[in-house]
Amino acid sequence: MLMAVAASCVVLLVAGCSSVTQGRAVSNLYDPFRAGGLLAEDGPSGVKDDSPDPTGEVQNGDGGDVDRLALLSVNDIVEFWQQNYAGALAGQFTPIENLLSYDSEDPSSPAVCGTGTYDEPNAFYCPGGDILAWDRGVMVPIGREFFGDVSIAALMAHEYGHAIQHMAGLVNDDTPVIVLEQQADCFAGTYIRWVAEGNSPRFDLSTGDGLNHVLAAAITLRDPILGPDDQDLLEDGHGTALDRVSAFQMGFMAGASECAAIDFDEIAQRRGDLPMELPLDDSGGVQTGEVPLDEGTLSLLMDVLGEVYRPAQPPTLTYEPAPCTDIPPSPPASYCPTTNSIWVDLGSMQQLGSPADESNYVLLQGDNTALSVLTSRYALAVQRENGDPLDTPVAALRTACLTGVAQAAMAGSIATPDGRTLSLTAGDLDEAVAGLLTNGIAASNVESQTVPAGFTRIVAYRSGLSGDRDLCYARFK
C-alpha cells in the first residue's frame, strides 16, 4: 500500500477462525457451505486406495514414487479429456506422446527441447516435440510434501492444458504468455472440478482442506511483484496470485469453454484498475509496497474507509479491550456492535502483517494481510448500520465481498477530506487472497467464524473487487 502523507507504503495480511454452521446464500456458487457449487467438506484427499497402477513409459525416469505419481496424474488427466474434450473445444483430443522425467539436482540432467534442465526445477510442455516433462528431483517432491498428491495432478493438468491449447487451435506464436498461462490455469481448474466431483478413479479431493491445498500450490507459482521496469511481464509473465486463482476458479466453476474464451482483453478487463506494479520512490528506487503497522497507519485506514463506505455512524478504533455484551475480543481485531467500535491488538496485527513468504514456510503475508482484516471489521459496522444480522455464514461472505469493494476503491484516488490517502500497491491483493485461504479472518462474521471453503472466501472477495456494495448484497443475502 501507499500512504500519501509521508510518502511511505502499505500492504495487507490475515489470521485464523473456526467454521460457521448456519445460513443460506442466493446461489450455489455463493452458498457458504459450497465450493463452486459443490458441498464444502473435509475428507480424504490423495491417491485412492483402489487406484489402478500407472501405465505408460516415462523417458529418463527412475521408476521411483515421484515418477509414479506424475505418471498416475497424467493417466488421470488423459481420461478426463477423453471424456470431456468433445463438445467443449474444437479439434480432436490426442494424448501427449512423450513423457519425460529429469532430476534438476543432477549436473548430467539432459536438455529438453533445447533447454538445459540442471538447476531448473520445473514442469513444462514442449509443443515442438509434444513432450511433457517434470522435475522429479526438486519441484514435484516439494510440491507433494507441502500441498499433497492432488497438487501434483493439478500441476500436470496445467502443463497438459498447454497441449490442449494447441489441439484446440486457441494459440499461436503471437499469443501473449499471460494468455497461455491463464488458459492453462483455467484448464487445470476444470480437471480438478472433475476430481472433486468424485469422477476420478485415481484421486480423491475434499472441497475443504484438500481444495485449499491445491489453491495454495497455485499461489506459490505466482510471478514476483513487478516494478516499473517489468512492464513486459504484464504480457509475458505467468500472473499474480489473484490472476492464477481467478483463472483456476473460472475453470472450476464454468468449464473448458470458459477457458477457451480467455484472451488478453479478458485478462485486462479482469485486472481492471487494480495495481500491477510497484511505483518508484523519491530517490528513483522501487518502493517496497509496505507501510508501518502502527497507530498512525490504522487511524488513517479508518478515515479512508469512512470515505469509501460513508456510514452515518462511523465505528471508533480502540486498542484497549472494552467490555462488549455481544462478543469477546478476538485478536488481531474484532468488532463490537454494542459500542460500534473496533478493538485491535496491535502486537497481533503487526505479527500478522509482517512480510513473509514461502522462504519463511508460510504461504504469503504482508501489511495488507493485516489491513484487510481491519477493513473487514469496518465492513461489519456497515452491515450493522444497514440492520443486517452479523453472526451468520452469509454475513461472513458478505464481509469478504465488502472488503473487496473497499480495497478496489483504495486502488483509486480515495482520500480523506484533508487530502490524505492510503492506496493499494502491487502485491497487496495477493497478500489478502493468501490470508483468505490460510485463515479466513477477512471473510469471518462478528463472532470471528469463517466458512469451510477457502475457495468460497476468495470468490466472495473477488466479487467485491469487481463489483460494488449492491452486488455484495445481491449475492450474499
From TrEMBL:
Q: Which InterPro entries does the entry link to? A: Uncharacterised_pept_Zn_put
Keywords on this record? Signal
Q: Does the keyword Cell membrane apply?
A: no
Give the residue ranges for region: Disordered.
41-64
Q: Where is the signal peptide?
A: 1-23
Which SUPFAM superfamilies does the entry mention? Metalloproteases ('zincins'), catalytic domain
The record, for Pfam families, names: Zn_peptidase
Highest taxon listed in the record's lineage:
Bacteria
Q: What is this protein called?
A: Peptidase
Q: Gene encoding this polypeptide?
A: lpqM_3
